[in-house]
Amino acid sequence: MRPTHMNGLAKDGDTTMTGQPEPTGTIGEGPLGSELQLQRRFAEPIETVWSAMTESAELEKWIGRWEGDPSSGKVTFLMTAEGEDAPAEECTIRECNPPRSLSVETNVGPNMWHLRCELSHEGGVTTLLFAQRVGDEQLSSVGPGWEYYLDRLAEALRGEDVTAVDWDDYYPRLAEYYEPLS
After folding, report:
1. Which of 33, 41, 86, 104 has the fewest CB atoms in 10 Å of its CB?
2. Which residues contact 59 (CB under 8 A, 6 or more apart)?
3. CA-to-CA distance for 28 and 77, rounded, in angstroms?
4. DSSP assigned state of 86
5. Which residues contact 137 (CB under 8 A, 6 or more apart)?
6. Measured between alpha carbons, how far is 120 from 82 in angstroms, rounded to an integer?
7. Is 67 exposed, middle or buried (0-12, 13-18, 19+ CB in 10 A)?
8. What DSSP letter does each residue of 55-80 carry, written as one string?
């Protein structure tokens, strides 16, 4: 099933009428060098999107939850959308400027992932830029994954059932697009 994206707003680069999600990620320069960048637009206030990205109870609606004290600079992240058996991941908060930007590092298996999000709001539309540093992991794997989770975020913000976003629509179909970006 193709999610109804961005509360009725189109994803950047999404012009297909096939009923299948299309890849939107591009390579751009970020604070740590080359990164995979994905954008989504929401007809929600910036504070609502920020809460969905940072508050544990809101985050759990679409991807997972964190435990611990964020003021310590570290939390434990549990990717509950992957099932109850998903391992806990230590997450270091590198930058947090509510409601505009968040940068974290997290251990995913043997790899360190560098993730960041930036939010802006103009004309009643909140734009999310989500990025992961290139080289952290194969983009053919993480690209479809972030498309999937960001579409679940869009559904959560709309108050829709995030389980209607089907992983099988994303992987392995979108992996071909992301492979040459690595």
Report:
1. 33
2. 52, 53, 65, 66
3. 26
4. S
5. 108, 111, 113
6. 29
7. exposed
8. -HHHHTTTT-EEES-GGGTEEEEE-G
Is 151 within the bounds of a domain? Answer: yes
Place of tokens 């960041």: 116
DSSP state of 163: G
pLDDT at 136: 86
pLDDT tens track, the chain, 182 positions: 333 344 445 444 443 445 799 999 999 999 999 999 999 999 999 999 999 999 999 999 999 999 999 999 999 999 999 888 888 999 999 999 999 999 999 988 889 999 999 999 999 999 999 999 999 899 999 999 999 999 999 999 999 999 999 999 999 999 999 999 98
Residues in the chain: 182
How many whole angstroms separate alpha carbon 21 and alpha carbon 126? 21
CATH code, domain with 108 = 3.30.530.20
Closest CA to 116 of 134, 98, 95: 95
Q: What per-residue confidence (pLDDT) applies to 19? A: 77
- DSSP secondary-structure letter at 165? S
Read off the tokens for 1. Answer: 């099933």
Our count of domains for the chain comes to: 1
Tracing tokens 């993730």 back to the chain, one arrives at: 115
